[in-house]
Write a structure and sequence with these properties.
This is XRE family transcriptional regulator. This protein is α+β, with helices and mostly antiparallel strands and 178 residues long. The chain has five helices and nine strands; from the N terminus they run αααααβββββββββ. The strands form two sheets. The chain has a six-stranded antiparallel beta sheet. Helix content is 24%, strand content 29%.
Length: 178
């Protein structure tokens, strides 16, 4: 199997679009497309970025051994999301969540910053506030969630999260289940 075919196979197996893989690996969608069609060869650095976003590494990728189920995910396994607003830091906690269709993220919001507004979509969302106080905005309703509290909702309306504090960061886990 060619490298591009194997990358495409892993991407599809993980239920990702080319665009999602591009964002998670900090590369362009066009580059991912060319690699998958074997029109260009990735550098070792870009291949490592792609594989990390797919929840694997060079050794596993080129190994002919049967893959074991990954059970423990360390800080090094997290994938930073690069297209967040200023003052928002987000990391995916799991890289290989298919077939669970779950996307857990760790988010740090600087004071008075907010996530991007998400349009209505399918699934459910859950969150747990580790530190600080956040506002969950669902259309025109606002919910205040403090440290140690959690939220759960159906994302069938526009939604985003804001840190209203003027001096404290907010840290929380946000899990999207599709």
């Amino acid at each position: 199997m060619k490298i591009g075919e194997k990358i495409k196979s892993l991407r599809i197996m993980r239920n990702m679009t080319q665009e999602e893989l591009a964002v998670r690996s900090d590369l362009t969608k066009g580059f991912i497309s060319q690699v998958e069609r074997d029109l260009t060869s990735p550098t070792i650095e870009s291949l490592e970025m792609i594989l990390r976003a797919l929840g694997t590494d060079l050794k596993e990728f080129f190994s002919n051994l049967e893959n074991k189920e990954k059970v423990v995910y360390t800080k090094e396994d997290r994938i930073p999301i690069y297209d967040t607003p200023e003052g928002v830091y987000e990391e995916l906690l799991l890289t290989a969540s298919d077939p669970k269709n779950i996307e857990p993220s760790f988010i740090i919001l600087d004071p008075n910053k907010a996530t991007e507004i998400e349009k209505p979509h399918e699934g459910v969302e859950f969150g747990f506030v580790i530190e600080g106080t956040i506002e969950l905005h669902l259309n025109k309703e606002t919910y205040i969630i403090d440290t140690g509290e959690c939220f759960f909702f159906t994302p069938n309306k526009k939604h985003y999260i804001k840190n209203k504090s003027k001096n404290q960061k907010a840290k929380f886990i946000w899990i999207e289940i599709f």
